[in-house]
Amino acid sequence: MSDVLPLFGPLLENSHTVHFAYDLGARHVTYVSQKAYEKLVGDPAAHVNDDLPHLLSRVHPDDWRFLQQQLEQVGPDELVQDVELRLAQPQGGTGWICVTAYRTRSGQGAELLCGSVRDVTTEKTYALNAHKFNVKKNSTLEILSHDLAAPLIQVQQLADHLAHEAQGQLTERMQHLLALMERSCQSGIRLIREFVDNEFLESANVDLRPERADLAAWLALLVGEFQGSEWLTHLRFEFEAAEQPFYVSYDINKFQQVINNLVSNAVKFTPDGGLIRVTLARHDGRARITVADTGVGIPVRYQDGLFERFTKARRPGLRGEVTTGLGMSVIKTIVELHQGRIWFESAEDRGTTFYIELPALPA
Questions:
Q1: Is the separation of the CB atoms in 64 and 80 below 8 Å?
Q2: Which domains does the chain carry?
Q3: CA 22 to CA 33: how far, in whole Å?
């Protein structure tokens, strides 16, 4: 093996990834790839041992503890791969580095920590902005679908009421026009809802890509989007987290679909002036999210089959919103892909509370 390692010298030295070996007993860096280190840190590689305390002090303490926990849980020569750490930038702001490391022993018996570090600030910034855009986009779609469908539902109801009140007094052409109004409204409502449902299903139907992230901060962002729409939905929205930050390994885009769909369903079945409340807390080492409403509740006859793919629990919302009936099935699948579970409690005219539990990372 020692005869082979020198062959990789040019690759290690000219890579954009910093490769290192750290003697845990001597507390000393024994090797660092020079060019990559100088590009990442902006200081000569010869100063690495002097730089190290300052560099480590810039790592977010939550992320540093997480990396230590991961290294403690694996045996010698077992990799801890692609752990992302936030890094305070000297000029302000937050950067990101990605670390892969393992513990091993040198030929002389010294205990070493070896691995690689690469700067992923650009990729991470792009991903975080994309996540925020998706939160805003999906919440806005739900709010707009409610706002756009409402006048169509009202026109449909007025046309139906007019036809009923004027029974026997309308000409054949007037009856035809009223029927056309009803069909046009129904078609518009269906198109709006199908667009939102298709967006939900397409977003959910991709490979799971979990990452360690602050679930409390993300839920606060999502609920905040709905809070900004209170004047449109005529409902109140609240969020409460028992601890912040609250780290969970999850696919942000997929799990957003879960919470967004649950909140949207609550909107459909909660009368004006009602409350929709999202909470996050730790229960027996797991993250428990609740989405509770003060709505009309789920009839007992629909409860057993609620999570079935083609459930009979499909019913229009209080304002005439339609549904495909596939949403709850997809939600259950996404939650289970996260090694989680979902259940609910509901009573007619007393509201509904959905519970989701996911594995949580240490506090």
A1: no
A2: 5-119 (3.30.450.20), 124-359 (3.30.565.10)
A3: 12
| CB-CB neighbours of 110 under 10 Å | 15
On whether the CB atoms of residues 18 and 116 are closer than 8 A, the answer is yes
Identify the H or E element spanning 147. helix 121-165
Q: Residue 288: which of 330, 248, 319 has the closest Cα?
A: 248
Give the CA dihedral 68, 356, 208, 95, nearest 10 degrees: -40
DSSP 134: H
Cα dihedral 199, 148, 240, 354 in deg (nearest 10) = -60
- Orientation of helix 252-268 relative to helix 121-165, angle to 10°: 20
Q: What is the pLDDT of residues 162-191, one digit of tens each?
A: 777 777 777 777 777 777 777 777 777 666
pLDDT tens readout for residues 59-84: 999 899 899 988 988 888 899 989 99
Entry pTM: 0.64
Nearest to 277 by CA among 259, 300, 297: 259
